[in-house]
Amino acid sequence: MAAPVRRETDAVAADISMPSLKSLSAVSPLTLRLVAECPVSKARACDLALPHCAVPTPVFMPVGTQGTLKGITSDQLEDLGCNICLGNTYHLGMRPGPALIEKASGLHGFMNWRRNLLTDSGGFQMVSLVELSEVTEEGVKFKSPYGGDEILLTPEKSIEIQNSLGSDIMMQLDDVVSSTVTGPRVEEAMRRSVRWLDRCMAANQNPEKQNLFAIIQGGLSLELRKACLDEMTKRDVPGFAIGGLSGGEEKDDFWKMVSLSTDHLPRHKPRYLMGVGYAVDLVVCVALGCDMFDCVFPTRTARFGSALVPWGSLQVKHKQFAKDFKPIDPDCTCPTCKRHSRAYLHALFKNDTAAMHHVTIHNISYQLTLMRSVRQSIIDGRFPDFVKTFMKKMFPSSDKYPGWAVDALRSVNITLDQH
Ligand SMILES: [Zn+2]
């Protein structure tokens, strides 16, 4: 039976054949093929071809710090079906340093990771981790936590480090302000981020191998976001990120900024929503038209014994699981659930870091499996039903649905059932 899904087989070729300036620019090492679009909402399933392998989207990208994900090896990550993960430029740029990593044939060689890597600009980490940072037109000035010397991270320096790391996707250096800041500083940061994008594009030594993504800023102002979208989409970058959100703003503001962004981003380029990783947020933001996500939450929360499950989370350390011989999630097929019980993990958590490792594996598997199910439902033309079933499992009664999620989904024609 044919599903009511719009399909497009060769979107990229169609785009290139247009007699526009775009066809004169360098071909990027990335193509995005739209596999299916939800006929109801803005959700889409794509095949993102990157230098190291193809990435089916929507996709969740786990976050590593110093080249490895805490508590998990590259092999295990590969076995879980992860096709792209994040490397942290700030930590790697400091220690062991780009020169050493370049010697190891880049970050792929250093961590022996055969699939794709995305690196951040390093800027966000500085502003959030280092108290003494100062932003000027030249760049971000900060004191190194590893020695105390003053370091200036410019857009050129950020790209130089990311070029040495050899990531498949590099992020521009942007001027980050907290999403709760208001006033003229928000516009200043947005305008500066546009200027820094131009400097990053000019500095990229490997445009044929490494994709540079722009980051849409503009705080919580519809006008500033729109102005940033107008400016940045004039540039021929391979992809766009939606930045400056997930920083403690109201969820009502958050989803409206996301939705405005996807309304104005080009259809044939990937859309990466930064710093989003809660299951509900992922599902809603796929409905709003986002393709890629990252967040430290699933791995960080695992280290505190919190396992992600379709009904929310399960605290392995709680007494109630001491004699519970079921796996974390009876329906999960990850290596942890196949082998270990809640009781075993509960006991292990008292004195062995291997417990964190087992829950980390489960949580990454949960995120990747969730996104695969989302994708399949879009391809099958049943995404709205998937969302309704997902929300029912997550919330025991419909009066517990978060208001923002109900509103966001309604804005894309998905009305949740009452139960
Ligand atoms: Zn599991």
Automatic annotation (TrEMBL):
EC annotation from Swiss-Prot or TrEMBL: 2.4.2.64
UniProtKB keywords: Cytoplasm, Glycosyltransferase, Membrane, Metal-binding, Mitochondrion, Mitochondrion outer membrane, Transferase, tRNA processing, Zinc
Residues in coiled coil: none
Pfam families in the cross-refs: TGT
Binding site for substrate: 120-124, 174, 217, 244
Membrane topology category: Peripheral membrane protein
Domain tRNA-guanine(15) transglycosylase-like: 41-394
A GO cellular component entry from the record: cytosol
Annotated binding of Zn(2+), by residue: 332, 334, 337, 362
UniProt entry tagged with the keyword Coiled coil: no
Domain of life of the native organism: Eukaryota
Catalytic function, reaction form: guanosine(34) in tRNA + queuine = queuosine(34) in tRNA + guanine
Cellular compartment(s): Cytoplasm; Mitochondrion outer membrane
Active site residues per record: 120, 294
Molecular function in Gene Ontology: metal ion binding; tRNA-guanosine(34) queuine transglycosylase activity
Family statement: Belongs to the queuine tRNA-ribosyltransferase family.
Identification of the protein by name: Queuine tRNA-ribosyltransferase catalytic subunit 1
Annotated source species: Merluccius polli (Benguela hake)
UniProt gene name: qtrt1
